[in-house]
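Q&A log
Question type: sequence-to-structure
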Amino acid sequence: MAQGADIIAIQETRKSSEQIASMHTGDYVLHAQSRIGKGGGVAVLVRKTLRSKRIPLTIPQHDTSLEVVVVQLALDQNRDFIVASACMRPPPQVTQSFRRLVNCLPASSLLLCGDFNMHHPQWEPFLESSPSEVAAEFLELRTDAGLTLVNTPGEITYARGTRERSCIDLTWSKHLTVSDWSASVSPLSDHYMLTFTLHQAFMDTIPSAPPSAPRAFYSWGKCKWDLFVKKFDAQLPAYDYKKQSTGIKAFTRALITSYRRHCPRGMHKDDPKLRGDTLAKAERIATDSKARCLQLPTPDREAETQRTRSQFFLLLRERLRSKYRRRIRKLNPGKPLA
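Response status: OK
Response body:
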């Protein structure tokens, strides 16, 4: 979100339905599915300036292998495409629900992102053992459905400890072109962050959403209405039916001036940015420290990774705690939310 992505697919959200309902996602619409029990969960976040809706995909209760959320995005000129965020719990299985996911929209442009916990030489050329039957079936199903692997073969997407390295986070596309795909170390997870640019076949790049318009918030319940009316009436010119346009402008100007002066109000500019320079620097230091540790693990580097990661988390928690600290209803009339 801080980097301005238009679409974000997340696996392992580890959020309950209640936590998801209360989440503040700023300029994004959140489509999420929580896991029954601990852990898990998948989500897709889409900028509010892009039209999106969730496509229901019912998974039977006995199918505990697959978690998925499917979202349809509408573009201009009656174009749309599907984004799915999926997670397969180990050991992975190719279930009927998974087959329905791949085959339910055969004519649609599709982007499928997920943690599949699957190993195969096509995306892990360094794999020394033969792929499992499940992995072979998984790849065959993808090929039959017309899905193309976006990952750079051999590019690590998951690293844990000193030896565990794999490419289990996969990106698949159909009737879409993906460029600039990359995997970068994240201080927040053992999984890498995958980023890319999305195109639609034979068409222009999918347009980025314009920035959201600034919003203002007012507490009508604490407005001093008597002063509001007096101020409003004092600014209105005498009515002249021959100058209706001028009268409408004067009315609007008087209304805005009155409620700004006599209602507790929020900011008239965009919300404060979550990712300030200090936080961005701390994240960069933590990321670089972790990347060095993964490249050549030593006790000193592991300690440095833990230290920089803790510093980043401390700054992040403090930023989240202070961003929405004050509420409009607690302000006095005419006082802005700082």
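Response note: The CA atoms of residues 157 and 196 lie 14 Å apart.
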